From TrEMBL:
GO terms for cellular component: mitochondrion. This is FAD dependent oxidoreductase domain-containing protein. InterPro entries: FAD/NAD-bd_sf. GO terms for biological process: mitochondrial respiratory chain complex I assembly.
Length: 160
């Protein structure tokens, strides 16, 4: 699925950069540029942090400390010859994703292993925030960052 997604997005104009962000330059709350491990600097006024399990480390470059930590999850506890396990980046506040703008950095963090299910829809919402300044397709304001600062976890109506 990831291979298909990468191929399709490239066919539609996405350019993937294989590198690591090592610094984010801010002027006040405004992003000015990012520095990559290769030494290349990219000037931008819009930055989206969708770094998956590395989102916490990335947010530290932004000067933010969000309640997301790594937790290893196991599919099988008993002896098997083949198994699958995952690496979750878990939001310790309420176990939900954290989405939205904070200052001038848009982000999507803490999908807790559900990224392949939710990333496309959430990515669209982050893009809408970056381009239009508001959600247009889905209203994800219940999982915005402010709920953490206000100590107000969302009430789940249906848990599947």
């Amino acid at each position: 699925m990831v291979g298909w997604l990468r191929k399709t997005t490239c066919e539609n104009g996405v350019e993937y950069i294989q590198n690591k962000v090592v610094d984010i330059s801010l002027e006040g709350n405004h992003v000015r540029n990012i520095t990559l491990q290769s030494g290349e600097e990219i000037t931008t006024s819009t930055l989206v942090n969708a770094a998956g399990i590395r989102a916490y480390s990335f947010s530290r470059l932004e000067g933010k400390d969000l309640p997301i930590e790594a937790r290893r999850r196991y599919t099988y506890i008993f002896s098997v010859t083949d198994a699958w396990n995952g690496h979750y980046r878990l939001n310790t506040f309420d176990h939900n994703a954290i989405i939205g703008p904070l200052n001038e950095v848009s982000f999507l963090r803490g999908l807790s292993g559900h990224g392949s299910q939710q990333a496309l829809a959430c990515g669209r919402c982050v893009a809408e925030l970056a381009v239009h300044g508001e959600y247009q397709t889905l209203d994800l304001s219940e999982i915005r960052y402010e709920r953490i600062a206000e100590n107000r976890p969302p009430t789940e109506q249906a848990v599947i």
